[in-house]
Amino acid sequence: MKRILSLLMLMALLLLVAACGGKDKATATAAPTSASPSTEQQPGQAAATNTPAPAAATSAPATATPAPADDEQALSAEQLTALEALDSYRQTVIYTSQGVDIDGNPIDDRAEIISEYTRDPQARRMVMSFINNLDPAASQDNLEVYQIGTDIYMEGGEDVGWLRLSSEESPFASAEVAMLTGGGIFSNLDQMRRVRPDQKINGIDSRHYQYDESVLGNIFGQDMADITGSGDIWVAKDGGYLTKYLLTVEVKEGNGGLFDPNMATGTFTMEFEMKDVNQDFTIELPEAATASVSLTGFDGPFPMPEDGIVQVASAGFTVIFTAMPVEDVIAFYEAELAELGWTKDEEGSMSMGEMASLGFTKDDVKLTLLITFDSSTSQTQIMASAE
Hints:
14% of the residues lie in helices and 40% in strands. 37% of the residues are buried. The chain is mostly beta strands. The protein is elongated, with a radius of gyration of 25 Å. The chain folds into two domains: 2-27 and 61-275, outer membrane lipoprotein receptor (LolB), chain A (Clam); 294-386, TATA-Binding Protein, CATH 3.30.310. The two termini are 36 Å apart. The protein is built from six helices and 20 strands. It has an 18-stranded antiparallel β-sheet that branches.
């Protein structure tokens, strides 16, 4: 489970990379507070709860039969993870791990990921919770992420607070996120066994399959000698996307794979379920998200050039890009900040060619601006920090 946590934090870093990498495409937009389909409906707030581990998947029953060619469509890895054609959905993934690590220490962890999506208008929400059942104090703060239009908001716990980023690229569509939240864990899909009759999963007509460890190469590599696994998977007849799966994995000798390479022996369980597919609901950005990304010392938005693009914003720092040359940026901030009551620290400021460092004070707040020209993008970067 430690590996899961590392990957989830990696996903958070991918948000930063996506935002900074997309600075030539991103557009400056006012921070939205909500996104809703035409028929507004308030969703129930999805909150992590310490629910029991999912039941172990059963072995293939005698009714499992090969899929007839006349009414079946081959399983596709692309379809299992491609959900962009849907109007909306909610999905939940629950991971549990119990066992012993290579040093003989007990493991009893649980992680839950709740995701929401609406296509029109484009909005996403993801909440991740991590619980150490043996030592609750070692549990981690929830990680909450929103993307509404080109604005991404991430709540990283008490130490980090809220961050705002801007990007036209969606980090939620990355391969890493697909691995963690859906069908990206499966390979060798032709090894899955068709089970009848078909079933409805949350109202969705779904084909039922069962599988063993032979389809888990994406998690454990190709050497399956130290694990056994079994599970069930349900796939929508219309669209071929994943609607539900159950998975139980028994680790025999130190191959926790993607989840925890330090596990010596133990059991992983996973449960995925898709809900509210193509239903009308609202993804709302918390007021705290927009309030907490205003730079310390400013009652409103941090001033920026008219063509400025906010790349990252928080209470402690803000990064902006502009096409204005460095000398014009300096003049802009000297004028704007003076009007807002800030006093320039002349001795603590300097300017040299295409780089400048400016200091300002107001009340008990110290503001520092690092202004540099990036020749690779022909843009000027403004890094503002307040303390």
